[in-house]
Amino acid sequence: MLSRLPVSKFFAEIWVAQDSRICRIVDFRFYLIAMRLFRASPLLVFPVLAIGAVVFGTLPSSLLRGSWGSGEELKFVAMVSSRGPGLPPVFAYWISGTGGESEKILRLLRAVYHPRNRYLLHMDAGSSAAERTGLAVAVRSDRIFRVFRNVDVVGKGYAVDRTGPSALSATLHGAAVLLKLGGDWDWFITLSSSDYPVVTQDDLLYAFAALPRDLNFVDHTNDLGWKEFERFDKIVVDPSLHSDTNTESFVATEVRKTPDAFKIFTGSPWVILSRPFVQHCILGGDNLPRKLLMYFANVAYAAESYFQTLLCNSPEFSNTTVNHDLRYFVWDDPPKLDPLLLNKTNYKQIIRSGAAFARRFMKNDTILKKLDEKILRRTPGGVVPGGWCSGQIGKRGVKAPAMDPCLGWGDINLVEPGPYGKKLKRLVSQLVSEERLHSSQCMSLDAHKGQ
Ligand SMILES: *[C@@H]1O[C@H](CO)[C@@H](O)[C@H](O)[C@H]1NC(C)=O
Ligand SMILES: *[C@@H]1O[C@H](CO)[C@@H](O)[C@H](O)[C@H]1NC(C)=O
Ligand SMILES: *[C@@H]1O[C@H](CO)[C@@H](O)[C@H](O)[C@H]1NC(C)=O
Fold it and tell me: Could you name the domain of life of the organism this protein comes from (predicted)?
């Protein structure tokens, strides 16, 4: 029956047709027109969508940017992130989640939003095509994301097993797409849908402004302990690498020797990587990134060791490693697969930690509301306010403003840090101070013992 065909399905095909992997869509207004027509007469939808597909499929994106007439779009052209010494950096966020998490992802996106940054969202094969379309439509229907055009959604949800190398492959794809989308960003930040920021973006931009742009914040150690046998001697096969659906990894019966061609380092999978290092991973002429990738294709939790091992075995990058991931989390005793879910009882420790992000949170936990009100000053459904918003942000520690201060905006390069930004800057400066930095960088245990 014609009238039962879901309109969103047609819409999905239009944006997927633009680029099979990334949906940098076209115009949401077309979708609205199609919806209206569909109600009036379902038959009319086909010619309209066909015209839409032709127009948007063939027009170069530069035309799509400037010429659609609305004041909003024209304004975009003039508002680019200024770069240079003394100016804040630009972050590129990779935010990943699975089925049923699109609301969590959107809330996280708003909580880490800044017009200077870039965002790439991905929902893995655990999500339905309808949910991924829903996420893309939600992004396109938000006025701020539409004007600044710095949020993209990966159109295809490929299979990911977070305990296997497919999780690493997804992260590397995110990094590659963010390099390709341009936007001259400085740092690549990985987040999961269960993460939440505990500082504003102004705080984070301020804390990173004075840092050398080649630093990589990666928690790492080469004290492998029990992991040496469990993780690196065992051979793991991750069917998500070759399957359409999320599939659990399994362990082969054979074991192999711990490598001696390079030294393994392991740590947290949540990283902040410099642009030069990401380029080295994705585009570099050196063979180590690829060789390691092939080795880690059969290692459990490859995402916890790949960047660590690559950084520490590359002489040109090992001195850029900061041994900290700037996240707050609590492990159970004994530790389980994931850190504990945080709730209101953890609020004080989270704030005291001085970290930039915390994990893990349950969807809509009351602590998120508290963080929104007290720390981020974010109104429900709004983005985290900053110096770029033209409205009144109001005082910290009291209730968030009733009116969203970011309905209008001014200079997007203006950053106004609060007390938590200053605290984060102190933490970061301490971490990168000469003696701290070099004593914790890729230290080999053997070297320690030998001293
Ligand atoms: C790392 O060392 C290189 C030279 O070997 C130097 O140019 C670079 O500034 C150093 N980076 C840091 C963060 O110390
Ligand atoms: C908060 O988390 C702690 C530790 O995981 C747990 O013991 C406690 O019951 C939780 N409280 C609530 C209100 O969920
Ligand atoms: C989230 O929680 C608040 C109370 O903390 C409740 O009022 C609201 O309806 C919840 N929203 C969703 C989408 O569940």
Answer: Eukaryota
